[in-house]
Amino acid sequence: QVKLVESGGGLVQPGESLRLSCVASGFTFSPYRLSWYRQAQGKERELVADIASGGASIKYADSVKGRFTISRDDGQNMLYLQMNSLKPEDTAVYYCHYGTYWGQGTQVTVAS
Q1: C-beta atoms surrounding 103 within 10 Å
Q2: DSSP 14
Q3: Contact 43, 50 (CB under 8 A)
Q4: CA atoms of 37 and 93, how far apart (whole Å)
């Protein structure tokens, strides 16, 4: 069965960095586009970034361009999100996504 498990969230101050990880199991990772979404309290879930097979195509939400970097390690079935220069508005639960599958999410809180 497909399983996605995120980790790496936490509480940081504005300007600091975090690296989120997602380990996938139950499917062949490499051919698929993978994504990070986030959902802030009271708001709809939104796409943060996604990455095609082999990293050939990468997209970012305008709000994170230049600060966040998505990457993948197909050999390890891992998806990453490096988040730099974090802002309070980045506070949300971050989810790993593939096809119709979602992880359980990891909380990121940016506050001074």
Answers
A1: 22
A2: T
A3: no
A4: 8
Quick: pLDDT tens for 54-104. 888 999 999 999 999 999 999 999 999 999 999 999 999 999 999 899 999
The dihedral built from the CA positions of residue 24, 104, 102 and 107, taken in this order, carries a sign that is: negative
Q: What is the pLDDT of residues 30-61, one digit of tens each?
A: 888 999 999 999 999 999 999 998 888 999 99
The pair of structure tokens assigned to 20 is 């989120």
Q: How many helices (H) and strands (E) does the chain have?
A: 0, 11
Residues 15 and 3: their CA atoms lie apart, in Å, by 32
**Structure letter (DSSP) for residue 53:** G
